[in-house]
Write a structure and sequence with these properties.
Elements (H helix, E strand, L loop, with lengths): L25 H16 L4 E3 L9 E4 L11 E11 L3 E8 L2 E11 L2 E6 L5 E6 L1 H14 L10 H20 L1
Antiparallel strand pairs: 1-2, 2-3, 3-6, 4-5, 6-7
The protein binds nickel (II) ion (NI).
Length: 172
C-alpha cells in the first residue's frame, strides 16, 4: 500500500465532475486500499478519489472513533437515491481544506446505492454522522466542497485563513 498526495483547495481536480468507474477489479481495489491508508494517515473520516487527483467516482469512509476497531466503507459509483426532508446542521472539515471547519446544513439521513469493494451492488441507510460523511464525500465526486455550501462571507473567511496558513508554512 502507498500513501497518496492529497490535493488542496483551489486545485482544479477538486472542481471537476468525476467519471463513473467501469469495473471493480484488482487495480481499482489497490487504489481503494491506498486511499484508505492515506485517509487514516491524515486522520480523516472520509476521502474521495478527486482529493488524491483521480477524477473517478469512488470514496472511502470510516467513522469509527479512535481506539475502536477500523470499520472501512468502500463506495464505488455511489448515488443518493433518497434524502430525508428533515435537515441537520453539523460542523465539517475536509482534508483538502486543511485546519478549517464550518457548520453545514444537510438532509439528516440519506439512502445510498453503491458498489462495494467486491463490486457487489449494495444499499445503505445513512443517519447521523455517517449521513454527513456520505454527503460530504459524494459532493466531492461532483466537484463540490463543503465551503460551497456555506455563506459567501464564511467561505471568504476560510479561504483567507487558508492562504495565510500557507504563507506561514512556506516561511518555515
Ligand atoms: Ni472533503
Amino acid at each position: 500500500m502507498a500513501r497518496l498526495k492529497v490535493y488542496e483547495y483551489p486545485h482544479s481536480v477538486l472542481k471537476k465532475k468525476a467519471e463513473k468507474v467501469a469495473c471493480v477489479d484488482d487495480e481499482l481495489r489497490r487504489v481503494l486500499d491506498d486511499m484508505l491508508e492515506t485517509m487514516y494517515a491524515e486522520n480523516g473520516v472520509g476521502l474521495a478519489a478527486p482529493q488524491v487527483g483521480l477524477s473517478q467516482r469512488m470514496v472511502v469512509i470510516d467513522i469509527a472513533h479512535e481506539g475502536e476497531k477500523n470499520n472501512p466503507l468502500y463506495l464505488v459509483n455511489p448515488e443518493i437515491i433518497w434524502r430525508s426532508e428533515e435537515t441537520e446542521v453539523c460542523e465539517e472539515g475536509c482534508l483538502s481544506v486543511p485546519d478549517m471547519r464550518a457548520e453545514v446544513e444537510r438532509p439528516a439521513s440519506v439512502r445510498v446505492k453503491y458498489l462495494d469493494y467486491n463490486g457487489k451492488e449494495c444499499e445503505i441507510l445513512a443517519e447521523d454522522f455517517l449521513a454527513v460523511a456520505m454527503q460530504h464525500e459524494l459532493d466531492h465526486l461532483d466537484g463540490v466542497l463543503y465551503i460551497d455550501r456555506i455563506s459567501r462571507l464564511k467561505r471568504q473567511m476560510i479561504v483567507k485563513k487558508l492562504e495565510k496558513n500557507r504563507r506561514l508554512t512556506h516561511q518555515n
